[in-house]
Amino acid sequence: MKGKHIVLGISGGIAAYKAAYLLRLFMKAGAEVQVVMTPNGREFITPATLAALSGRPVVSEFFAANTGEWHSHVDLGLWADVMVVAPATACTIGKMVTGVADNMLVTTYLSAKEKVMVAPAMDLDMWAHPSTQRNVAILRADGVEIIEPGSGELASHLVGKGRMAEPEEIFRAVKKYFDRSRDLEGKSVLVTAGPTYENIDPVRFVGNWSSGKMGLALAEALAARGAEVKLVAGPMAKSEAIPGVERIDVVSAREMLDACLNVWNGCDAGIMAAAVADYAPVNAAQSKIKREGVDEITLTLRRNPDIAATLGCIKGDRMLVGFALETENGVENASGKLERKNLDMIVLNSLSDPEAGFCKDTNKITIITREEAPRCYPAKSKREVADDIVDAMTALWEGK
Ligand code: C5P
After folding, report:
1. Of residues 40, 208, 333, 342, which has the active-site annotation?
2. CA 320–ligand 1 middle distance (angstroms)
């Protein structure tokens, strides 16, 4: 954490006093910390305490009334290697979700380019309220990491969930984030993403609803940790270029297989996140099929090559990760695929889960390996899920 820039956002909850301990932990670990407080935050802990501990004046107002100087939230947002909001009240979370940028904390959040972590703190009923839960889910889907509150006695003397995670726990989450950075330098990873389209004729195809979001999140997570990524992408939305990611666009399963075989030799690992069409029309028509006078047509489909299984056959000591989308007997079916395709790990998501599946921004996974019992994860943004998958891969690498 040495030399890292941390923006510590403090909003107005009683847990604000714990932010001083958190700040001390960051400082002791060698980070530079800039405190940004909401006006209500100042009611719970004084800027003087935090300025003394951080060695920097606390930022709270847009303008200094007596000099007209103003604070640039953009500069702060760009300066931050990570922004940690602790405590985050229900109000601040709501403002972050909707972009109500009427204080320095929320404006800085909107300008922050790097990771944002939020440690909610509130009364149990506020935490359980559908509004808060909805807002937290939206923050997650926006890529914000939520450091879950704990259960215990609250400031109201009621007992339940809502108490801010302890400073040590928040510190560990931030440290874990920094430790991950660049741990994949020198590794090259193939990722397949999106659907494949199998032509019926020049204007029609057989396809599926995959958005490619999970594969894209994996490519981002890998590249952020220093890996060189070959992203073989079926037809899916164009993304901004991601440094460290070479995108190879393909349309059909056969094209995807060829692209994968071209790069597989130079890779250390592969993650098969594409929803490859299982079948393709045997003979795609060369010109548009006319419907005039034709009441029924029959498409003959042939099974597509299994890209994961093909790479699995020739993988040697490379690591291969697959996905399984199951409606029933998830763990059993996914474990069967792990064996059949010679994978090292399979990521199971269930279609019956409202937080998982096609076109969603969140996912809920179970990771299955040969070494350990299946591990279930809570619903998270696809970007956080991607980090969990990459963490599981690095753990496997370390174990080998
Ligand atoms: O057999 P099933 O389609 O459920 O397997 C899913 C896993 O296999 C995914 O990782 C998917 O990307 C991969 N797959 C593939 N080629 C296929 C079918 C699936 O690479 N033709």
Report:
1. 208
2. 12
